[in-house]
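Q: You know discrete backbone vocabularies at least as well as I do. I have my own habits and do not want them to colour yours. No explanation is needed for now; the record alone will do.
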Amino acid sequence: MSSTADRHDGIRAPAVIVAAVAQVVGSPLGSAIAGRSVGAVSDETGSLITPAGYAFSIWGVIFAGSLSWAVYQALPAQRGRELHRRTGWPLAAAFAGNAVWEVLFPLVGVSLPLLPLVLLFCIVAATAVAWARLQDIPVEGLGRVLPAAVTGLLLGWVTVAAAVNAGQAGVALGARASGTTAQIWAVVVLAVVAAIASALVLSAHDAAGPFALAVVWGLVAVAAAGPPAPVVIAAFAAASAVAVALVVRTVVRRDPVSLLVG
């Protein structure tokens, strides 16, 4: 049994590293292949819930954290930890999915927008599996902080990104990017994001802080992108709801450090 587990660890650990590196390389590779960047396609298909450009800088933090954790979990003393065994493959799948999305979106984000959208929802699902497993694993000191923070930040951001990508897909398929109907749709989507994110925060045992931070970051950036006023108000209200949920959960939770950090 031990040798089998060690063999599986020996496959998983390098797979996580490869996937983490791939998601960093994916963006410039996708731009080179398609001849245009993710940002250019995003601008072309922008909807009322497309965040201000600065928001996407969060990927730098996520990439750095992912690479750091990938190397850490591959260390001989770390490979066999239950934490890495249970979260490794889902996060590797999410990282690999990001790499593919970064190539796919510039290529077909306008012509076949549903393909990157479906892939992004798969990325959300894979990250959510890692998040759910993280909640069931007992806290084990500082070694838990890095994978918890990476999982929380990634899940929070791709939750917002999935909503944004859905709006972009709609515009690419012919939906109006502005007007009353677009505003109603945007407000409803923001309310759904706030409800899902708040529910996850209120039910979390660990790493709710990084998750909430990423969601609030994205929602505030939607508001910062500017008018119309109903969307700006809805985005700020959604961000506030998630922040309040985190405060409430922190007060209720007996171990606020693990909740906020991991």
Notes: The first helix runs from residue 2 to 34. The chain has one domain: 2-260. The mean pLDDT is 92.
